[in-house]
Amino acid sequence: MDGENQSGISEFFLQGISKSPEQQQLLFGIFLSMYLISLIGNIFIIVAISFDPHLHTPMYFFLVNLSFVDMGLTSSTVTKMLVNIQTQHHTISYMGCLSQMYFFLMFGDLDSFILAVMAYDRYVAICRPLYYSTIMSPRACALLLAMCWVLTNSVALTHTLLMARLSFCVVGEIAHFFCDIIPVLKLSCSDTRINELMVFAMGGTVLIVPFICIVISYIRIVVAILRVQIPGGGSKAFSTCSSHLCVVCVFYGTLFSAYLCPPSVASEEKDIAAAAVYTVVTPMLNPFIYSLRNKDMKGALKRLLSRKSSSRS
Q1: Which of 198, 241, 299, 301 is most buried by its number of CB atoms within 10 A?
Q2: Which residues sit opposite 173 in a β-bridge?
Q3: What is the pLDDT of residues 109-136, one digit of tens each?
Q4: Cβ of 72: how many Cβ atoms within 10 Å?
Q5: Which residues contact 180 (CB under 8 A, 6 or more apart)?
Q6: Using alpha carbons only, how large is the chain's radius of gyration in Å?
Q7: What pTM does this model have?
Q8: With helix as H, strand as E and coil as C, how does 81-104 read?
């Protein structure tokens, strides 16, 4: 692949979030701030967990990976948009578009799978506590994470390679602020039926299957909690899931609104707004949700900050 597709098109135009120059400058400041907050927050989560031995457990192992994936998801989409707004050069190269599509799909699908694995971890911890250390052993956690990476990389690579075989007859404008599959497919002058079929089959699978796993895990958690006879035991058990459940609701709520809305409801503006939420807002909120609603994380962050202040003095 030499940087051009079969028909010689070497770049695309990205519509961006807004066509108004005044709004673009305002949005630049807003999205830059959210991007930096997201990076700093997720880095704090990773560092706090890494330096606190009390948090070297499966739940926080997956949380570290979720924070890393969130940074990758945001960086793969927002950085190009920020550069385009600042330079007023709203283009992306053909190879750059395929690369962005690959990383967006990989990190987006990884987010979904890691959230499902975290739900399974909470299910085992609450419903099968005596077997928790055996089921969620370091080896099992590593295998689960490796499986997530292999599956999501395979899906992302499949979509990217199928896109690379298409021809584009004109330098069209992608109706989005990054190279998402459907807006790019609309610009192709080739037969896209195979691509659309794979989007429906594989895309639906990587969204629905993890979501179903999360729902089943929480149904079984709720049933187990309702059986708890100790006063306050149920609320204490469920408190360990509250942060994860908040993140799941925000992530899947925006994701489903962007990709599973009927055509009569969907529009380019709504799709772009929903994409902005789950690629920028959700990764920015995750560190706050996990730190504010989790006593262990609040303690770890306090110890990390006190360690830094004591080292300076």
Answers
A1: 241
A2: 13
A3: 999 999 999 999 999 998 898 999 999 9
A4: 19
A5: 101, 104, 174, 275
A6: 21
A7: 0.87
A8: HHHHHHHCCCEEEHHHHHHHHHHH
